[in-house]
Amino acid sequence: MSSGHRDSRVDVRVSVPDTVVNQASVESRLRILLAEDEPQIRNLLARVLAREGWDVTAVNDGRQAVAAWPPEGHSYDLIIMDVNMPDMDGYEASCHLKRLHPQAEFLFISGHLDQPLCRKLVQMGFELVPKPFSPQQFAHRVSERLRQSVKSE
């Protein structure tokens, strides 16, 4: 991989009017790690998540997702990963992260649901959101997943 590929981590910050912040639920302050190798999709999804008020770190593959987990302090509340990515796919990255951080919560996205890896993730109990989806559908699924993870804590 070229070094340019590794330097594409993006922290997205979006200004949100006070009225929106005051109406936001507890989940709006949650942190999300997004791993998606397609730049246009990654940027769109990061913007959708940031508009919902979530703190988003976006990376372009599984290896960067593993490296993005902070060694100390507040971890991510949800990790959203594309299943098929170069260098390290979403499944392999999730295995690394689960070993290091058993409490980690995942939501997988894929446009190739017929692949054995997607079937394996579903059999293991992971939630898989099929591409394509609208920004509204995506935000709704993420919100549902965050509510589930907060309830289980």
Describe the structure.
The protein is α/β, with parallel strands linked by helices. It has a single domain (3-151), classed as Response regulator (Rossmann fold, 3-Layer(aba) Sandwich), CATH 3.40.50.2300. Helices cover 43% and strands 17% of the residues. It has helices spanning 3-6, 18-23, 39-51, 62-68, 90-100, 116-123, 135-151, and strands spanning 10-12, 31-35, 55-59, 78-82, 106-110, 128-130. The chain has a 6-stranded mixed β-sheet with strand order 1-3-2-4-5-6, sandwiched between helices. Strand 5 (106-110), helix 6 (116-123) and strand 6 (128-130) form a beta-alpha-beta unit. Mean pLDDT is 84; it is low at 1-6 and 13-28.
